Amino acid sequence: MKRVQRAVAIAAALAGAGVAACGANAGKPLPSEARGSTWDVHSSELAGRDLVSYRALRRSDFRAKLPPPQARAAADRLGAATCSYLVPDRETFQIRANPRQRGDGWEYVAEAEGLRFSAAMDRGCSWWNPSQRALPADYVLAHEQIHFALTEIHARELNQRGAEIVRETRAVHRDPQAAIAETTRKIEALLREESKALLARNDRFDADTSLGHRPDAQRAWQRRVEKELAETARFASGARP
Fold first, then answer.
1. Of the candidates 50, 49, 39, which has an alpha carbon nearest to the alpha carbon of residue 13?
2. How far apart are CA 73 and CA 95, in angstroms?
């Protein structure tokens, strides 16, 4: 019997809603530079960063001296910028290639194990505009909280689809490392697609709330995300059935 091959505990992480735009000038549309954006991040790049899991945000969580590069062209129009990541659990996630015999030899079936997602805010990347006075600070903070919540909701939706994702990303190959590499690529592709959906929802939120002070619209979004967080609580990373 051949030994089971294992991948290192890798994680293909994506930054969702990396720039949470909050317009400071009522009636003026946000430029493209002030909208949300995504970029690929490997889990190894997150080591040592000042990350916090989903929770209520505080003004002191925004520790960056400058806005993220994607937001700097429109920094004077922003109330704040939140860097939030959609990440697999680095403690439990691995890809294992299990051998199985076939008529003419062996092949390996690679699949994800311990794949659970969560939202993480990077405090060292997240920025608060100290010169912005057009919007109340509590409005800006609530705005960034909703962006963070949207990332957490998408993470929980992925967890809800866990068994389906394992099936869809399974790979079979005669070489165990090739099987592992194919499963890795499939998971990375899945995260890229999910980040696009997450970005689209963040953009809809900004379109409704970021053109100046629109507390009624923002409260409606807050009620919506609070409802979704309650409905998906059992799918939070670390939740117990």
1. 39
2. 40
Give the residue from 107, 112, 135, 103 showing the smallest Cα distance to 191: 112
| Count of helices and strands (H, E) across the chain | 5, 11
- Write out pLDDT tens, residues 80-115: 888 888 888 878 888 999 999 888 888 999 999 999
What single string gives the DSSP state of each residue in 124-182?
TT-EE-TT--SS-HHHHHHHHHHHHHHHHHHHHHHHHTHHHHHHHT-EEESSHHHHHHH
Cα-based torsion angle of the residue sequence 202, 204, 208, 210 in order, rounded to the nearest 10 degrees: 40
Q: Which two three-digit tokens encode residue 189?
A: 């592709």
pLDDT 10s digits, 24-37: 444 455 555 555 65
